[in-house]
Amino acid sequence: MSNGSRWTSDHLREPGGTAIYAAQQRERLRQMADEVQALLREYRADLESVHIDGDRPGQRKVRAFLATRPLAKLESHLREAVNAAGKLDAEYNRRFVELPKKRAERAANKALEKSAKAGAEAARSADAVNTAATLHGISQAATENPDGKAGGKPPAFLDFLKESA
C-alpha cells in the first residue's frame, strides 16, 4: 500500500494486510513512545532543578515525579499500544485463517469417525445375521437323524461314538 493512501478494512483483509498495518503502526507508536520518553526525562530533570523556598531534602524530586506522572502514563500507554498492535496479525490469523482450517479438519475427522462407526455397526449386524443363520443351521443339523431325515430325537454323544466305531 502506498504511503498516500488511507488504510481500509479491505486492505486489512488482503493476505498479509494486517501484518503490514500492524508493523507500520507499531513503528509509529514506538517512535512516539521514544519521543515522549525523551521529553519526560528532560522535563523531569528540568523540574527537579527548580528550587522553591522551604523545600525539604528530596521534595523537588517527588514534586517533579508527581508533575510528570501523566506524561509517564502516556509513555506507558503508548508502549502498551505497541504490544497491542503486535497482536493484531496473530489474532486475525487465529480467528479468520486458522479457524476455518480447524473446523474443516474437525468435520473431516467427524465424518471419518461416523463412517467408521457406521461400518462397524453394519459389520456387527452382518455378523448377527450370519450368527443367526449359523445357529439355525446347527439346530437343524442337530434335529436330523443320522440318515439325513428330519425329526426324531436329537443325536447324543454316545450315538456319535457308536457311529465312529
Explain what this protein looks like in three dimensions.
- It is a single chain.
- With 165 residues, the chain is mostly helical.
- It has a domain at 9-120.
- 79% of the residues lie in helices and 0% in strands.
- The chain has helices spanning 9-13, 17-48, 59-143, 157-164.
- Helix 2 (17-48) packs antiparallel against helix 3 (59-143).
- The radius of gyration is 43 Å and the shape is elongated.
- The termini are far apart.
- The mean pLDDT is 82.
Describe the structure concisely for a colleague.
The protein is mainly alpha-helical and 165 residues long. The protein has helices at residues 9-13, 17-48, 59-143, 157-164.
Helix and strand arrangement:
Elements: H1 9-13, H2 17-48, H3 59-143, H4 157-164
Helix pairs in contact: 2-3
Biased composition (Basic and acidic residues): 106-116
Region (Disordered): 106-126, 137-156
Biased composition (Low complexity): 117-126
Gyration radius over CA: 43 Å
Number of E strands: 0
Number of helical segments with 4 or more residues: 4
Described by its quaternary structure, the protein is: single chain
Structural class: mainly alpha
**Poorly predicted spans:** none
Distance between the termini: 100 Å
User: Could you estimate the helical fraction of the residues in percent?
Assistant: over 70%
Specify the overall morphology: elongated
Strand content: under 5%
Average pLDDT, rounded to a whole number, is 82
N to C succession of SSEs: HHHH
Main sheet? none
